[in-house]
Amino acid sequence: MRLACIDSEALPLFAKSPDGVTRDGYEPEAARLVFDRIGAEIEWVMVPWEEMIPAVRRGDADAVWCGQGMTAERAALVDFTHPYAVFNETLIVRADDPARAAEHLDGYRIGAIANSTNMKLAETFPGVELVSFGASDDVFGDMIEATRSGAIDGFVDDDVVMIPLGKEDPDFVEAFTVLTGNRWGIGVAPGNEALRREINAAIEGVIDDGSLEKIWAKWMPLLPFPLEAALLATSGRREQ
Length: 240
Hints:
240 residues, alpha/beta, eight-stranded mixed sheet, globular, Amino acid ABC transporter substrate-binding protein, signal, Solute-binding_3/MltF_N
């Protein structure tokens, strides 16, 4: 099973691959759990962020498994499975910055990944200048360094990667988190219903037996496991 992803350092979601083949973190471990249940090996197809969905649509990958919030725009390009994660979104600023609410950001240069749910949130901040990122293999690292250098004043990403950054790196602080509850799914090529249903059944299985929750707790012990409610809300019913 060829899964499109970026090769970037964004723990606990994923670490930069040491060899261009293997990956570690919540997302790769969850993917192994799901596809072990299906009985399929994984080949990671590492491409820039903006090339992941096109790779699936071209047939260069079977699915996208990489931070895909299930937006209407993406759902027009790929068919999504049940969610395997649900996250909120956080703004990080430099440690000496007093901003703690969207209303404090007038005149700020705020970064986010182009065409992402994070950028959609940033677009709601009054008076900001938006700066798009996405042409690099390590877009998360690029946004960190742009904030550190002062090229931008802060950036928006998902709480799972941002809260540790704000707590562990003395150069940064978490300004605020917005409870957006974005559901992340695996995007398969449009019309590949057999694969989508097969992945859905595997996701249901690893939720029911508690194995996915164990992986969640291993990598993200400070975030509550949200998936049973999200699964039901997304699908309306179990796959038959």
